[in-house]
Specification:
alpha+beta; DNA Primase, Chain A; DNA primase DNAg catalytic core, N-terminal domain; Dna Topoisomerase Vi A Subunit, Chain: A, domain 2; 5-stranded mixed sheet; 4-stranded antiparallel sheet; 12 helices; 15 strands; 34% helix
């Protein structure tokens, strides 16, 4: 059952019984308002039944949320646990029941060796360029985000001002390669964010459904999975040997292919998931839970920070991770 189906087949209106809500608008399917069932604030709570969304001016900061988030808050569950609870109540339709099983897919693999060879040379040249006048502005930006030269070299971060290696084109920006077990799976570019351009782009031929820094996961009881390579890098830099950190490289919503990545999680008793507070992040946490089960526990930072912004604001990453590890080990 995918995330969107869970939301579509569970109408928020079914869970509002007993709330003192009044209709305050009739356009666009209508809107209800009343006291918040979570913080108790009068007239803070809003529901749009037709759109299956709700908000509280205090609890969600005025941001619309979905039925999964409502159940998570109501029952004091993680997003993944709430999704699982809602899934338990759904029935498979006759059409779904008659659908033939999907054929088994082969394990997900890295790009062809020829692509890897060209990408590897590009990574090497771009890494060298980062520490020259060519990459000076990019280096300043990365240092402002807290990265040491040692961390940048460890993860082979570089800079391209427009690079061509055979038929491989590397657009301008900071280069972030995904190396796993000696292979290069993808090459991501942090662009200059020109108007209308995406913040990140992938070099053609990349295989982005991979785990950034996966090699660190093999021999540990616990691990932290973050959203985004920069978050994984700063956590690795600052947490030292406290816990291995990896990222769902291409996208938070990447689903773990257990045929390929299961071996990296065989020994883990606790998998902390730290994703952004948005739909992609929720989808990512649910996908991780679906693959790895109740070993997955959601982690959160104060004030809704992502990991890198929390560090830049002076947050205590070691204190934060130690408190999480203590809590989950004591409750195990």
């Amino acid at each position: 059952m995918d995330f969107q189906t869970i939301k579509t087949q569970n109408q928020l209106a079914a869970y509002l019984e007993g709330l003192n809500l009044k209709r305050v608008a009739s356009t666009g399917g209508g809107e209800l308002a009343g006291p918040c069932p979570f913080c108790g604030g009068q007239d803070r709570f809003r529901v749009q039944p037709a759109n299956n969304i709700w908000l509280c001016r205090n609890c969600t900061g005025g941001v619309w949320r979905d039925v999964i988030d409502f159940i998570a808050r109501r029952d004091n569950l993680s997003i993944a646990q709430a999704a699982a609870k809602l899934t338990d109540g759904l029935k498979v339709t006759e059409d779904h029941a008659q659908t033939a099983p999907k054929p088994t897919r082969p394990a997900y693999g890295p790009p062809p060796l020829e692509w890897q060879d060209r990408a590897r040379q590009a990574v090497k040249d771009c890494q060298a360029a980062l520490f020259t006048e060519i990459g000076a502005r990019a280096l300043v930006y990365l240092q402002k985000r807290g990265f040491t030269p040692e961390t940048l070299r460890r993860f082979s971060i570089g800079y391209s001002r427009g690079y061509k290696s055979g038929d491989l084109w590397i657009p301008e920006g900071i280069t972030i390669p995904g190396f796993i077990d000696g292979a290069i799976w993808y090459l991501k570019i942090r662009t200059n964010e020109q108007e209308g351009k995406p913040k990140y782009t992938l070099v053609k031929g990349s295989k982005p459904a991979a785990i950034f820094n996966a090699d660190s996961l093999r021999a540990a009881d616990n691990c932290l999975i973050t959203e985004g390579e920069f978050n994984a890098m700063i956590a690795t830099q600052e947490l030292g040997g406290l816990i291995p950190v990896a990222s769902m490289g291409g996208s938070a919503s990447n689903r773990i292919d257990l045929a390929t990545w299961g071996v990296y999680f065989m020994l883990h008793k606790l998998v902390l998931a730290l994703f952004d507070n948005d739909n992609a992040g929720e989808t990512g946490s649910i996908a991780l839970y679906a693959a790895l089960g109740d070993r997955v526990k959601l982690a959160a930072l104060p004030d809704g920070h992502d990991l890198n912004s929390y560090y830049q604001a002076g947050g205590d990453l070691k204190g934060w991770i130690n408190s999480l590890l203590d809590f989950y080990h004591e409750s195990a």
